Amino acid sequence: MQTQSQAELGLVGKVVLVTGGARGVGAGITRVLSCLGARPVICGRNADSLADDLREFDFFSCDVRDAAAVEAMVDGIVGRAGRLDGVVNNAGGSPFALAADASVRFASKIVDLNLLAPLAVAKAANAVMQTQPDGGAIVNVSSVSGHRPSPGTSAYGAAKAGLDNLMTSLAVEWAPKVRVNSVVAGPVETEQSHLHYGDDAGVAAVGATIPLGRMATPVDVGNAVAFLLSPLAGYISGSTLTVHGGGEKPAFLDAATAGNAV
């Protein structure tokens, strides 16, 4: 794995919980933090899903939608490590379902996972961080789906929009001890990309629509997360860092017939 920099970011020895840290974007975040000297703690459903290189890290099995289980997990981390310096709220996602076809119960579950669960994790972590001399930092992994239409994943997009708004409020309520920020990720190529974009040709076609010519990698997201957790971002709180390769080309440019359309 390559990171953008092996420079000292002030993360050596920092204990950082990464929810959903066993695979996909979360695994990339875990690997970046480890490369930078942090002590990642992985939260997931089942340790059997861990890649071989991730088995060295502490693992807690926890359903982050269960507030009591989340509190027990945070207590367990502090019991083992003595502190909790950072949290990455990465667990989330949604299957494709058109709003007209999906039940209200389905939408509720998506909001639980992508909005209420990160709040439960953040609350439990904040209770610990407020008692620590150096406080702590929380980074939510959000999505561009919360900042533009999200057809087929409308509840997910709405939850991510809520998560980013929630982040700004928590940053005010929990300052100055705890910083809270969001990484707003665009399309990321992971082992499950085919579920969203199809075969290799589909993945490549989606990447070609992005100004930088490719989807993000999990490491790209991990680098952004590491920055926001680090002392380099010590005066950054209540902010969103967008990691989307330049965004999406407006559709009207392809439809326009004017000579200056690009």
UniProtKB/TrEMBL annotation:
Gene3D superfamilies, per the entry: NAD(P)-binding Rossmann-like Domain
Keywords: Oxidoreductase
One Gene Ontology molecular-function label: oxidoreductase activity, acting on the CH-OH group of donors, NAD or NADP as acceptor
Matching InterPro entries: KR_dom (IPR057326), NAD(P)-bd_dom_sf (IPR036291), Sc_DH/Rdtase_CS (IPR020904), SDR_fam (IPR002347)
Annotated TM spans: none
Keyword Membrane assigned: no
Occurrences of domain Ketoreductase (ranges): 14-189
UniProt keyword annotation of Cytoplasm present: no
Tree of life domain: Bacteria
PROSITE patterns the record matches: ADH_SHORT
Endpoints of the signal sequence: none
Family: Belongs to the short-chain dehydrogenases/reductases (SDR) family.
PANTHER family with a match to the protein in the record: SHORT-CHAIN DEHYDROGENASES/REDUCTASES FAMILY MEMBER
Protein name, as recorded: Short-chain dehydrogenase
Protein's organism: Gordonia alkanivorans CGMCC 6845
